[in-house]
Amino acid sequence: MNRQRLPVVLSAAALLIAVLGATPNGFAAFKGVAKVALFAKNAGKVGGIAASKKPKAGKLLPLGRNGKFPTSVLPATTPSTGPEGARGPAGPAGPQGPQGLQGLKGNKGTTGPAGPIGPGGAQGPPGPPGGFGLLNLARAGVSKVTVSSGAAHSATAAGSDGLPLVVVLDTSSDDLRIVHCNDATCSSSTATTLDSTGNVGRYPSVTVGSDGFGLASYLDTTNGNLKSAHCANLACTSFTTATIVSSGTVADDFTSVNVGTDGLGLVSYVDSGNLKVAHCTNVACSSAGVNVIDATAVAYSSLAIGADGLPLVSYFDNANVDLKAAHCADLACSSSTASTLDSTGNVGLYSALTIGADGLGLVTYRDGNTGALAVAHCNNLACTSAGISAVDPGAQAQYSAITLGTDGLGVISYYDGTAAQDLKVAHCGNVACTTSSYVAVDTPGQVGWNTSITIGSDGLPFVSYRDLTGNSVKGLHCPNVFCVGHLRRR
């Protein structure tokens, strides 16, 4: 351009700007032109290469504020690993995680060496004497002791300690006494008077209650009542007595006590011309309910619990002079079925009952026709019929009692009423007692009334009986189930 014309051009441009700036349209037009003028189109390039904020091909990347390229565009390098530094302190333990599944059982480890033997404990009380094998055959003799002087009727049972417990009528004072033997032979004992109110203690019977203590039934002859005595300890030095039937008409006849499967006592007795059973309402038998079994004025009854758990009673029907048995339909004997077992003449006195190894009743009694000691073996649980066998044909047998020996066969004590007037013991040769053996075990004087027999914890028979000559109740301990002294097999 001609230098002489430049001032003219600049003046014109200044005038134009002034005009345009005086109006809004003119300002807008100027603004657009100003932007173009203010930013040269090649200002974003260096040497013709454009810039970019992000790495792109053919673009320039500006340095960061620290004057360095970002690490994202630097080439990857493998850092060199220096030596491991020292371990820092352990951090706090984290919370316990849930329990994992139980692992498989490992193999049993080797047993370690046995530890030292500890000090011995205190010595326990001596146990009851042992037997001599199943049949108890030993070179021992029959042992006889006086259990109670001036005494008559007696009954015995093995207590919970396995030692004989004997109830007796003390005839010198008409009191009921109980004797607890301190050993199997009753060589020493403790005696306690249970009842001394009036004439008490005739025809006693004793068993062990469901509480493990002695339970006795007996007559109150003064008042014509049936009574019970319940021991509070093994020796019966503590006890209670109660009148369980106060009719005033209880007959002077046998009583028989046992414990039912409900744990309560049952007593058979005669009252007002009827055989009855009293079912105790508690273990101490302080009261009882009464049920009639059969009509008879004299019964010589014996009560046992059958293999079916129901009471079974053997007795004498004095109206028909027959041996009978009554099978109760329930534990209280509220109803029963009576059956005649032997009706051949005058039979059935002094009956005694136990349950054989076959679960069937086994009854001993007197055959009044011949005087023989006879046995009836029930044919069924209800004892509606029985097989009859003679044990001692010529004994004039009285006061029989029966139990089961350790060989599972019947053992019978009885009085031989012939001129011998001896106490005898018979042993059945089989379950039905169709064969048997017998032996006299006490012979001097008149001995053997009111016998009662039990098996002690030594497995040997023990018999209580009356010695009329000596005016006492005696105890006899057998050395074996046959009650034969010094018996030994070859």
End-to-end Cα distance? 168 Å
Question: How would a crystallographer describe the biggest sheet?
Answer: 4 strands, antiparallel
Here the CATH topology of the domain at 148-410 equals Methylamine Dehydrogenase, Chain H
Rg over C-alpha atoms, rounded to the nearest angstrom: 56 Å
Structural class: mainly beta
The fourth-level CATH homologous superfamily of the domain at 148-410 is YVTN repeat-like/Quinoprotein amine dehydrogenase
Identify the CATH architecture of the domain at 148-410: 7 Propeller
What is the CATH class name of the domain at 148-410?
Mainly Beta
The coarse overall form would be: elongated
Notes on the structure:
With 490 residues, the chain is mainly β. The chain has a domain at 148-410: 7 Propeller (Methylamine Dehydrogenase, Chain H), CATH 2.130.10. The protein has 2 helices and 30 strands. The strands form 8 sheets. The protein has a 4-stranded antiparallel sheet with strand order 3-30-29-28, with no helix packed on it. Strands 4-5-6-7 form a 4-stranded antiparallel sheet, with no helix packed on it. Helix 1 (6-21) crosses helix 2 (24-38). The N and C termini lie far apart (168 Å). The model is unreliable at 16-39 (pLDDT under 50).
Q: How does the SSE layout of this entry go?
A:
Elements: H1 6-21, H2 24-38, E1 45-46, E2 49-50, E3 143-149, E4 151-158, E5 164-170, E6 175-181, E7 189-195, E8 200-208, E9 214-220, E10 225-231, E11 239-245, E12 256-259, E13 265-271, E14 274-280, E15 288-295, E16 302-305, E17 311-317, E18 322-328, E19 336-342, E20 347-355, E21 361-367, E22 372-378, E23 386-392, E24 397-404, E25 410-416, E26 422-428, E27 436-442, E28 447-455, E29 461-467, E30 472-477
Antiparallel strand pairs: 1-2, 3-30, 4-5, 5-6, 6-7, 8-9, 9-10, 10-11, 12-13, 13-14, 14-15, 16-17, 17-18, 18-19, 20-21, 21-22, 22-23, 24-25, 25-26, 26-27, 28-29, 29-30
Helix pairs in contact: 1-2
